[in-house]
Amino acid sequence: MSELTNVLQPEHPILPQLAQRRSPRAYTAQPVPAEALNQLFVAAGSAASCFGEQPWRYLVGNKEAHPEAFAKILSALGEYNQVWVQHAPVLAVSLAKTTFSHDGNPNRYALHDVGQATATLAVQAVELGLQIHQMAGFSQDAVRTSFSIPAEYEIAAVFTIGYPGALDQLPDALRERELAPRVRKPLTEYVFEGGWPQLSTERYDQAPV
């Protein structure tokens, strides 16, 4: 089970792995064993998908086993992310096949299904003492060019995989974000039983990770 740093305090009981899942920016140098990586991606593959298409694809750059792939993914990230991501042992890219294999038609649910798969992977990571941090701050073109990704595959996100490390390795601003309380919107703001509400405002003051 993962370490217990900054555990979410939900308003109703949920699985401990869900409450302990977070998006750390500090990692140890400990390599992630191949068996653990296999477990993560098998977990991802267990997710539900439209027509059973399983449109998810993952590019993996293991710093120890595939340093060139790691470097390619790292170089596609924005400078802000590179500062801390460079210390993670594994980087991965999630992608979605945007057409159905059985008939070639567009699959408008592909990104939804990739999100489900990666969320399942994230929960399995907690169980193994690992964490992932998903990012949107990267160059789509750089990833596509570096790995010659076909046009029918949409790049969803880049994420780290690793064992959470000491926060003193981070710049002050990032350390503060790591220590900020993890809170979520109350159910009343996103679950609308019986009909759509007329909300006058949306709250954007909640921690994003």
User: Averaged pLDDT, please?
Assistant: 93
Task: Detail the poorly predicted runs.
Answer: none
User: What is the 3D form?
Assistant: globular
Ends: how far apart? 19 Å
Any idea what the radius of gyration is?
A: 18 Å
Task: Describe the sheet with the most strands.
Answer: 4 strands, antiparallel
Total number of helices: 7
What descriptive keywords fit this protein?
209 residues; alpha+beta; NADH Oxidase; four-stranded antiparallel beta sheet; 7 helices; 4 strands; 14% strand; globular; Nitroreductase domain-containing protein; Nitroreductase
Question: How would you characterize this protein structure?
Answer:
- It is a single chain.
- This protein is of the alpha+beta class and 209 residues long.
- The chain has a single domain, classed as NADH Oxidase (3-Layer(aba) Sandwich), CATH 3.40.109.
- Helices cover 33% and strands 14% of the residues.
- The chain is built from seven helices and four strands.
- It has helices at 16-20, 34-45, 67-76, 79-85, 110-127, 140-147, 172-179, and strands at 56-62, 90-97, 131-135, 153-162.
- Strands 1-2-4-3 form a four-stranded antiparallel β-sheet, sandwiched between helices.
- The chain is globular and about 50 Å long.
- It starts with 15 loop residues before the first helix and ends in a 30-residue tail after the last helix.
- The relative contact order is 0.21.
- The model has no long low-confidence stretch (mean pLDDT 93).
- Residues 18-75, 76-163 form the Nitroreductase domain.
- This is Nitroreductase domain-containing protein.
- Belongs to the nitroreductase family.
- It comes from Hymenobacter ginsengisoli.
